[in-house]
Amino acid sequence: MSAAITVNNLSKKYGTLEALKGISFEVQSGEIFGFLGPNGAGKTTTVNILTGILRPNGGSATILGHDVTKDSYQAKERIGVVHEVSNVYPEYSAYNNLMFSAVLYSVPRKIARERVDYLLDIFFLRDKKYAKARKISQGMKRKLAIAMALIHQPQVLFLDEPTTGVDIATVFTIREIIKELNSRGVTIFLTTHNINEASIICHRVAIINKGEIIAIDTPENLRKAAKRVQSVEVEFDVPPAKEAEILEYLPSASKASKRGDKLILTTDDPHRLMEEILEYSRKTGCVITHFNTPGPSFEDVFIELTGIKPKSLSAMDVSRDG
Amino acid sequence: MSDKNSSMEKLRKEFRRAIAIAVKDLRIYCLKPPVILFGVVFPFFLFISFYIGKRGPIASSIPGLVGISLFFTSSNIAPAGMPFERMTKTFARYLCAPLSFSWVVFGKTIAGFVFGSLLAILPLIVGLVAFATRITSVTTLVFTVLVSAMCFSSLGTLVATVPTEVPGNVMTVLNFIRLPLLFISGIFIPLNEMPLWARALSSASPLTFANDLLKSSLGLSHHYPLWLDFAAVAGFGLAFYAIAVLLFKVSTSAS
Ligand SMILES: Nc1ncnc2c1ncn2[C@@H]1O[C@H](COP(=O)(O)OP(=O)(O)O)[C@@H](O)[C@H]1O
Ligand SMILES: [Mg+2]
């Protein structure tokens, strides 16, 4: 295996803000590489530098052996880019959007027409072929933007949070297509703030926070860590005086903290914990007024993986499917 | 040898990609309200209010009308499109596509050039059909229209570098530059009726020289030698273009 992407001590500043503090990693050819981090971590900045939209302040990067700042032309012909926002031309139909992409990457007209039909089919957009992009749904726009990045059959595909802000059916279609492309040899660089997404489709995942890569790990380890730190939210009509007190009744909970009147419990076995909570309720007569299992928090997974207590982490979406 | 071939191939590909950008811009933006309003309607009324009724035969005012039309239509496409492309982030597509930024600027400029050249035919036809305008030199006329449209379109591309997502902002800047250039040009007051200081000032506007060329090719008396007019319009155009490329490079690498 050879490296499709190499990143060496890359840094970027916006004014005084250090958006990237010298990050390094490699992505192998044929890999689905996840770039996981909360909002503002530096994911989009990284993608923009690698795809030639931004210039770094320091460090270097190559794609398919070509330096992204000095000799980007060769690389640009072979990469596909799906931006964070679905940047389609609203005045153009799906067909015209795709054909424009095709000429921008020198795909011959006849071949382009065939690929347009194929892509519209796999994204379930056939009946929107001549609809103005302004008039189609968010999910369809995202799929159209992805199709536009595929028209020249790139060797490396960059996707910046492709499943954020779209409906669940679209999320599944997008994930299926990512896997399918990868099985045909396309290297995938995928950013996400969703731990679950990173762990189900990526071969390796880099965790980035505040412009620094904290860990690069396998999704198995990510999943295991996430499993150990699942959280359960519970609220009683009479809140317990101290969190430590209730922990005596709940041996399956490893940690308890308060958020408003709600109690947040960390556990590796939510099912057992639920039974213990019911038992507690019966014994003490406290009535359960709220119960929820929101999944692991990014902070908990992070601590579990690295053993470091971060100074502060931005909020991160950890819902199971979104 | 193969190196030379591949760099020719690259050049050819980049050229065609730039033309694709021009075609797309023309198709999408030529009917946008700011283009119709500030590029077609506004200069027409401006012309009517300042010129007609002031002097004798209308035929003598046709070069001025063609000049104003060229000036406003050519320079309007890029400034009308660019803020939209910043807003919808479609602008980022050019930056990650395989063509250098100078080619993107070229494509944007070609769009205004084509639009302006085509729309300049309208007042010309009106003149030919209704007001007995005579074309005395087709060659001069064709070259004048082409070179001037390229020059004015480059001015539009230059203004389009203003980093905003609001089309209105760019239009304001554009008219802030265009109107003075129009008023100091020899369109409303012929150059030979101007005092010396005004004539000197008029050299700061490319429209002065474009108008002089149009007058000459439509059988009216002109002020400067043709070679000087052509050199001036081309010179202004090259300067606008070079500054546009420079400003785009600065604004995209700074962000
Ligand atoms: N154009 C910009 N100007 C100033 N700050 C920016 C700009 N783009 C991003 N930032 C800041 O840089 C940091 C990283 O942003 P970004 O790469 O967009 O993060 P992510 O994609 O992971 O959410 C954030 O703090 C963000 O506010
Ligand atoms: Mg982002």
Structural topology:
The complex is a heterodimer of chains A (322) and B (255).
Chain A: E1 3-14, E2 17-28, E3 32-36, H1 43-50, E4 58-63, E5 66-67, H2 72-78, E6 79-82, H3 94-104, H4 109-122, H5 138-150, E7 156-160, H6 168-183, E8 187-192, H7 195-201, E9 204-209, E10 212-217, H8 219-228, E11 230-236, H9 243-247, E12 253-259, E13 262-267, H10 270-284, E14 288-292, H11 298-306
Helix pairs in contact in A: 3-4, 3-5, 7-8, 8-11
Chain B: H1 2-29, H2 33-50, H3 62-74, H4 77-87, H5 91-96, H6 101-130, H7 138-159, H8 167-184, H9 196-202, H10 206-217, H11 226-254
The structure holds adenosine-5'-diphosphate and magnesium ion.
Would you kindly provide a written description of the structure presented here, covering whatever features stand out?
The complex is a heterodimer of chains A (322) and B (255). Chain A is an alpha/beta fold and 322 residues long. Chain A folds into two domains: 3-223, 3-Layer(aba) Sandwich (Rossmann fold), CATH 3.40.50; 227-319, Alpha-Beta Plaits. Chain A has helices at 43-50, 72-78, 94-104, 109-122, 138-150, 168-183, 195-201, 219-228, 243-247, 270-284, 298-306; strands at 3-14, 17-28, 32-36, 58-63, 66-67, 79-82, 156-160, 187-192, 204-209, 212-217, 230-236, 253-259, 262-267, 288-292. In chain A, helix 6 links the parallel strand 7 and strand 8. The longest helix of chain A has 16 residues, at 168-183. Chain A starts with a strand and ends in a 16-residue tail after the last helix. Chain B has one domain (2-254). In chain B, helix 1 crosses helix 4 and helix 7 (138-159) runs parallel beside helix 11 (226-254). The interface between A and B is medium-sized, with 25 and 23 residues. Magnesium ion (MG) is lined by residues 43-44, 84, 160-161 of chain A.
Query: Order of helices and strands of chain B, N to C?
Result: HHHHHHHHHHH
How many distinct domains of chain A? Answer: 2
Bound ions, cofactors and other small molecules, one mention each: adenosine-5'-diphosphate, magnesium ion
Helix content of chain A: 25-40%
